[in-house]
Amino acid sequence: MFENEGQFTEGDQAILVSLQSQNSHAEEICEFQELVKAADVRELSLIKGKLASANQKYFLGTGKVEEVREAVTALGANVVIINHELSPSQNRNLEKYLKVRVVDRTALILDIFAQRAESFEGKLQVELAQLTHISSRLVRMWTHLDSLRGGSVGLRGPGESQLEMDKRMIGLRIKQLKKKLEKVQQVRHQGQALRDRLGVPVIALVGYTNAGKSSLFNRLTDAGTYVEDKLFATLDPKHRTLFLDNIGDAVIVDTVGFISKLPHELVTAFHSTLQSAVDADLLLEVVDASDSEREFKSEQVAQVLEEIGADKVPRIQVNNKIDCLNDVIPHVNYNDEGMPKSVWISAEKDLGVQSLKDAIAIYFKDKHISKNIILPPSKGRLRAKLFELNAVKNESINESGEFVIELLMQKSDWDRLQKLDADAQIYLN
Questions:
Q1: Residue ranges of the Hflx-type G domain (predicted)?
Q2: How far is CA 314 from CA 276, 279, 282, 284, 354, in A?
């Protein structure tokens, strides 16, 4: 059969198939077409229909399968892409009947990720996800050796032995990849621990893919991240420093965009990449304010955040692309406690971006202490601790030889210092 499952080549021409069930959403078909475009595959035709229940053999109904076969023959397609997840047997049966390669939604997304991964960790994660997906489908690669298989001890043929060898090799490779990813995670945890120790706030950009996260990231940090009107234009997370007035330096992270029906293999394999969102002190959920499907997409983002355990992290909604709307100006909405809950901006046109920075600073200001203190020379140990916490913004010595220190530090560190050192309370208060 067709061994290069999900791996597209230049010049691939596809028939697309998307069936709507009762739980389907109109946005899913448009997103499916955008995914195919992102994979650099030419769409010849889109076949739509209703799906009451999946056919056990083909997933598609027999009439729909025949319609697809006629389209393949008439248009000369070399691949059929299904906007649903197929079982290995359904995938195999469709390829036998249609006589072309069949790729389901999961394999399509995995292929796009394989094209876009650039970092060492990203490539490891993509390979792990692909191998996890392929391992359940290995049998289809060796159906041409079915006649060589035996049914009892001593009669097993080359087909089965080759299958077992491949399974074993893939199993070993998966173990190797997991070990390498564990080491990468350890390095990340060390970096996170250092930021925690220094009291550096971490802000993660999350949102549906193509909502303008990378454009906003560039506007906030001058990072020069690649931006294109295409799903998953950027894949690997980027970290940059963001300076906030009255707060100091913060770390801002641009994460991979979310989509509906994110394949389970990707949620699992990319958990360490998405860990940036879990570990963040604040999430900026970037929403395309001009998108008629923004509420549906926001629900999908919330679902993925819950899957990765980031649903409890505080969040500010950033409504982007207001330049595409009429009579909407940049503004900030606050909750009853005076904390920012949503900001309306245009990252591309640089409208309201400073208001967003101010809103972020307001959020963190409540968690920081800013004041001036005076320490005698005898409190060198306390002074050293303040420097260790990166809490000293400015320092001078007065005529009495005392240290005049301007502090900016996390409130939690302030409270902890006062508890640890009784004398410190005299000076820190």
A1: 201-368
A2: 14, 11, 5, 9, 20
Class of the domain covering 200-365: alpha beta
368-428 is classed in which CATH architecture? Answer: 2-Layer Sandwich (3.30)
Is pLDDT of 207 > 60? yes
For residue 95, give both structure tokens: 């390829």
- Domain 13-116 matching CATH 3.20.20.370: the answer reads no
Using the structure block, give the residue that is written with the tokens 């397609």: 77
Report which listed range, 186-200, 241-255, 303-317, is most confident. Answer: 303-317
Instruction: Give the residue among 349, 113, 341 at the shortest CA–CA distance from 212.
Output: 349
Instruction: Find the angle CA(278)-CA(284)-CA(286) to the nearest 5 degrees.
Output: 120
For tokens 């920075």, the residue is 357
In Å, how far from its chain's centre is CA 344?
Answer: 23
> Do residues 61 and 55 make contact, with C-beta atoms less than 8 angstroms apart?
yes
| Contact (CB, 8 A) for 68 and 17 | yes
State the Cα–Cα distance between residues 16 and 108, nearest whole angstrom. Answer: 12
State residue 116's pLDDT score.
Answer: 76
pLDDT 10s digits, 152-181: 444 444 555 666 777 788 888 888 988 888
* Coil/strand/helix, residue 305: helix
* 210 DSSP assignment: T
Output the CA–CA distances (angstroms, integers) from residue 263 to 105, 110, 248, 258, 259, in the order listed: 8, 9, 39, 11, 9
Helix (H) / strand (E) element for 221: namely helix 213-221
Q: Which residue has the tokens 């650099």?
A: 40
Residue extents of the structural domains in the chain: 13-116, 118-197, 200-365, 368-428
Q: 3-state SS string over 256-322?
A: CCECCCCCHHHHHHCHHHHHHHHHCCEEEEEEECCCCCHHHHHHHHHHHHHHHCCCCCCEEEEEECH
171 token code pair? 């199993």
Candidates 292, 304, 299; CA nearest to 255 is 304
Alpha-carbon distance of 89 to 177, in angstroms, equals: 27
Dump pLDDT digits (tens) for 302-357: 888 888 888 889 999 999 999 999 889 999 999 988 889 999 999 999 999 999 99
Of 250, 225, 235, give the one whose Cα is nearest residue 361. 250
**Tokens, residue 150:** 């035996």
Domains 13-116 and 200-365 share a fold: yes
